[in-house]
Structure formats: C-alpha cells, structure tokens
Amino acid sequence: MRTPTKDILKKMGESVTLMGWVHIRRDHGKLIFIDLRDRWGIVQIVFSPKNEALLKEADRLRSEYVITVEGVVRERPQGMQNPELATGMFEVEAQRLWILSEAEQPLPIAVAGAETEPPALDTRMDWRWLDLRKQEHTLIFQIWTTIENAFRRYCLQEDFIEIHSPKFMEVPSESGAELFEVNYFDRKAYLAQSPQFYKQMAMAAGFERVFEIGPVFRAEPSFTSRHATEFTGYDLEMSFIESEEDIMQALEEIMVSMLEAARDHYGKELEKIYQRILAVPSLPFPRISMEEAKKMLSSGGGAASERGGDLNPEEERRVSSFIKERYGHEFVFVTRYPAAVRPFYHMRQEGDSELTKSFDLLWDGIELATGAQREHRYDRLLMQAKEKGIHPESLQTYLNFFKYGCPPHGGFGFGPGRMMMKIMGLENIREVTYLYRGVKRLSP
Amino acid sequence: MRTPTKDILKKMGESVTLMGWVHIRRDHGKLIFIDLRDRWGIVQIVFSPKNEALLKEADRLRSEYVITVEGVVRERPQGMQNPELATGMFEVEAQRLWILSEAEQPLPIAVAGAETEPPALDTRMDWRWLDLRKQEHTLIFQIWTTIENAFRRYCLQEDFIEIHSPKFMEVPSESGAELFEVNYFDRKAYLAQSPQFYKQMAMAAGFERVFEIGPVFRAEPSFTSRHATEFTGYDLEMSFIESEEDIMQALEEIMVSMLEAARDHYGKELEKIYQRILAVPSLPFPRISMEEAKKMLSSGGGAASERGGDLNPEEERRVSSFIKERYGHEFVFVTRYPAAVRPFYHMRQEGDSELTKSFDLLWDGIELATGAQREHRYDRLLMQAKEKGIHPESLQTYLNFFKYGCPPHGGFGFGPGRMMMKIMGLENIREVTYLYRGVKRLSP
Predict the structure, then answer these.
(1) What angle do CA B172, B173, B179 make, to 5 degrees?
(2) Quick one: pLDDT band at residue B81, thresholds 50, 70, 90?
C-alpha cells in the first residue's frame, strides 16, 4: 500500500512504501540522499552504508527515475532539518528500492533545481510533460480544476442542464471567418467557434437553463500571448430573463464563487510560489456603459475612438484602471455595446437600436467574458442578420429555432484560460494551457 | 418575479407570474383553458368571460406560443381535479397575459398530446428542438447531467486533476484509420479519436490522477444505432497502480455512484414515464477472463470464435446473459483480452505475452467501457508498436513521454451515451444525444 508524501507526517516510526520521482540526488560521503517527489510534495530518503547492496542499487539513481522505496519514517538529525518544507523535519531510511522507470540523461529540460537560465517558452512547450512536473506548473491545473468545479457547482445548484453540443457544423456559425474546415466523408464540415447557436437551440427546446464546458476552435492566424487555435470555453444560457442585467448578475456571482474556491484551496500556494494574493471581489461589480467609458477615455487625455466603435486592448486597460481608481474594484462590466461591433443576434436596446443589450466583463484590463440578451423574435433577428450582410439562407437552420415559440433569453461565454492567467499572474496563455495549439504548434 | 410551475403549490390564494409554453388549449363554452408548460411541469390557466379583453387576447393563443400570465392560484372546482398531476388540484385564474413569442402553425412535429403515429426518428432529428420539448426527452438530459456530476464528484473526491486535452493532433493517434482530417493553415491536422495519448502524457507529467470529459471524433462510415461520428467521452487515467484491477475497482465504484445518483434524483420519473426500474448493482462486479468467456460460449452450444479473437456483439449479449443467470448481475468485466485485438500500448500479462492486462465492461450485453494497464516501459512499448506494424517515427512524440521517467499507470474510457441508452431503455444513440452527428447528418 502506497503512502503519498502528504500522509508521511502521520506515519512517524512506521514502515511506509513511497512512490515517485527522483527529484534531487545528493551524495554525502558514504550516504546517498534522494529527494523523492510525488504530486503532493517531497520527502527525503536516506540510503546508508549499513545495507551495501541497497546503496549500490541507489547509486544507479539519476534525476527523474521513477522508484518505489520501502523504509521507516524518522525524525531528521539536528542540523539536517528543513522547517521550510512540510516534510522537512522527517526523512525515510530506505530498506528496499525498486526502479520502475529510468530517465535518459541528460534531461532535455531540468525539472528540479534553480536554473541559471530557464528554458525558452517554446522549448518548454516542446517538452511539456517535463515542464509540467514542476510543482508551480502542476499547481496551475489543480487551481483550474478547482475553479471549473466552482463554475459547475453554481450551475447545478441553480438547476441548469449540462449539454454537450456538436463541434461539427454543416454551415459556418456567425461570421464565417476564422473557421476550420474538415473533410467530412464526401463533403465539408466546419468546427464550431462556440456553442452559441446550439445553446440557443436549448432555449428553443425548453431547457430554460443550460451550460457547457468544451473546446472551441478559431482559425485565427494570430500569434499574440492571448490567442490559441483551440481553447476551453465556458458557456451559459438562460431563458425568461428580463434583460442582460440578469446575465451579469449570474456571471458576477459565478466569478466570486470561482475566486473564493481558488483562494480557499490554493491561496497559500499562490502566495508562496507566485507571490499572488488573491482578492475576492465584492458584489455587485461596477457597470459602465460604453458611452460613459468613451467619455472617460477622452476626458483622461487620450483620444477615444468614435461612437459605434469597440474598445481596443489599450482602452480596456485604461477603463479598468479608471474603475480601480474610482471604485477600488478590479472588475467592471462595460455595457451597451454598439450594434456595429456586436454579432447580429444581440438584442438591441429599446429606444436606441444602434446599441445592444450586451456587455463585456473586464478583469484588470483583460476581457474575460462577453454576454448579451439575444434577439428571440424571428422577424427582428432576420432583419438584423440582413443588416450585417448575412444571407438568410445560410442561417435558415438557426433562424428556424425562433419560429415555433422561443422565450426571451441570454447568456455569456468566457475563456477560463484568460482567467487563469490573471489568477496566476502569468502573461502568456501558453503557460496556463495543458497543451497549447497555435498556428505553428500542433505537438506534442 | 416569475414563479416556476414547481413552486405553485406553495402559492395557494396568491398572485403569481407564470412563464412558459402553451402546451394544450381547450375551449369550453365561453371559457378558455390553457395548459401552461415550463421545464418543471404543467399548470392549468383559466381565462373567464369576466374579463372580455383578456379573453379576446387569449383567443389568439395557439400551441407552443410562449407567454407570461399573471393570475391567482386557486383550487380547481370539484370534478375538474386531476390527481395524476402534481399541479392537478390547482389552477390559475388569469388576470393579465403577454405573448412573448408566437409559433407558426401547424407545427412540423407535435409537442403535446398523443399522436396516432409518432414521427419517424429522422423527422424528429430534423426538428430536434421541438422534439426535446417533450418532458420525456428533456428528462434524458437532466439524468445525463446527474450522472456526469456523479462521475466528476468521484474524481474530485479522489483528488483527480481535470484536464482538457487538445482535439487537434499533428499525427494520427492509434491506428490512423477513421480519422477526420482538418485543413490547418498550410498543412493538415487530425481530430483526436480519444484523449488516450494526452491523458497518458499527464502521467508522464506527474499529475498522477486525471480525468477528462469531452468530444471524441470517429470517421467511421457506420450507420448502426450505437455509432456516431462525434460523441462525448469520459476518460480517466491513474499512476502507480499495481495492475488493471485497480482501474476496474475505480470504474465499478464510479458506475455505482452514477446509477445511485440517477435513481435518487429521477427514479420516480423513470418508472412513471419509461417504465424503467433502475437497479443499482452490487459491488464488486463479476469478472470473467476472455478464455473463460470463450469456454462458456462454446459450452453454451453456439460456436465461439477462436483464441486470439474478440467478442462480437452477439457474444457480448450471450456473456451478459450467462453472468446474469449465474450471478444475478447485469454488469461484468471481461478481462485478459488477446493482444491481437487490443492497441499496442496495452500492457501484456506476465507469463503470457499473447494476453493483455485489459478489460471491457459490459452492461446487459452492451460494451460500456474499455480499460487497461498501459505499457510504460519505453523498450517494450516500442517493440509492441513495431509488432503491430506501426512505424516508430510516426509515434515518436508519444514514445518520448516514456523516455524520462514514467510511472506504471492505467485507465479507462467510456461513452456515457451508451450508458444513457441502458438507463432509459432506449435502443438508439440518436435518442440520447443532444444533437446527433453521423455520416449523413450535420444539422441542425
């Protein structure tokens, strides 16, 4: 029976079986010390000359060998104790050793120890499975698991149905640009850029509340630190809303519960390893209309783009710092986006058809989520599609969803990858993606 | 503030706002009765001639219109009560009415009422969003949500990390057959047939325990009731196992907790609507080796295929009935599959290299899951790949995962769609798929 390193403190004086990787090997005279690493931590193993055959076997050990060690847990001798480490007051005196897997030497990139020059990000991506062995990198995916679970927990408590919509589409969704084409038997199919149309179909199907977690595909020839050709999306859609305000309320509550979960489970590690102190924002988040945002931007000295335009990334950062200054809040909903920069299916504001009932959520200058009330009235939807120059025939399957009774509804989509960047304080989406996919990267 | 139909029993004598679909309209003399449907049930609305303008407005209502009704909850008059329905003792006397969305008449397929001839499955798929409005079809996805959550809850309790592995691959995984090809900028990419290689990479990355829920893609030109070109897969992988037995134990516990969750939340509805009584199986599930299974099959009279072969679907059914008869159990693990019918990465049995440390899980004659201990030793893996006629160069990225220390590990993959078929007692995977994708179907 294996003892994970996290349980070693309970086993003082007992015999244990540890399994893991050779993190670091140190030779001191006739003794061999191994730092054994598993997902939960590091324990020091001592091979002493009392057992010569065993010491000889231990002499074969190199970095990243995978081993099983049987031994007895004991207190470390005075002067050898390391109070920095949870397991630093103990060590295991080895009695038996099995090598489960050897590691070719030298390793292409180091896993343990401080490096004078850390490898380039691209090299790290080439050897991603070694890169991910570092505790600080594994942590990213433990935190991701935690926030994802918090997102789902909220949805399930609120009686949402989880859907898995198809990634193959017959006709392009939305704009038609940035679509991957698949050879589908004797014809073409397209990979969904978002579950937008299909989560709206769930509203027409009377599901009322749905969410989806799944991959989305974007054939953007983009090389920025925030873009990937494939990434995980969180999507939510709900019916019988009064306005987009209902969606913003759901989203801000979800954000808070995700950040609370991250802080409660991994706040200490984030502080220790990443020097990040995760503040859980207060509710409600500030809201600012696009019009107010533009005013603020021009009064701030810089030139703001004209009415009808979007915010560029620099403007998003400025809006966030303005809100931070005025309200002490890192989050802000920018509302009432111009129809010109929104998809045809966003509902228009009553009394101002140039504006939509939509919003973006920014966290500290980064756009995290986009949402809106959708247009559920067939005739208006058709008109709005035509206005955008979309041929209604190409949309007919989607438009049919609204022909036989469809409730008012709205929702949001967001990329947890960008949220993870913010949580970890990392600058590149590649770092928080399990296996990044980009224009030039399809492997490992 | 909307009152969902499920809450109406608490609102006796009070004014409520209901929102939903016109399920059925009945005219009795000067009265109009509407059965209003939302996701949670049906409530009868009465429009009386006391309010003529309102009655006139109600006269516009047709099947599947989406409406908001304000009214007062009261007991139904004697003789009008329906004890079959949770809300059958009450009705709402309408005071105000808003039409939120009209439905073109006639509907392409009916939502309410008994049909003399139900539409063909293919017609139902064409109008899937109307088909899904039926309570018995929505129920499928409520149950799916419940079992999926049970699967995840098990994984999270056991400290698994949730991953989202890429669906784009540079080189074909596994066999190379049945792969969808994507036009990926100036080259080709392939869609992952399973997260197999990438969940194994997580073992090489020291994650130790991972699971994934996501789409898998199979370019099978297959038209059976059990196949689709895209479906949801549940995958799990764990390190430092002793043998495939550890994987079977995890899987059978997961199965039990999924079925318990389905029964606890939806047992009554399953019985009432589908005449299904969901039995939660006892632990452990019976195990039978392929060799024993073959013996049993030939002793049973029918001709069993030779050693080294797989079980065909008919044989799977016979094995299940044999186990049911002998042990009274609907589940069975068939173990020790011949290497000839398993992928190269399944570990071989010690002492019999023609057999693998692998298993299939059958439920009542249907294969639900496949699992195995994997070969983690580089040299053997290379040899096994070569034996299968695979060029090692095409596998080099995958093989590299095993070069720098990889623990013994194993896992399983399974299709919740097939499990849902069994739970519901439905014969076709199309019925339990939100939006089915097949050779001839890419829409809606």
Answers:
(1) 55
(2) confident
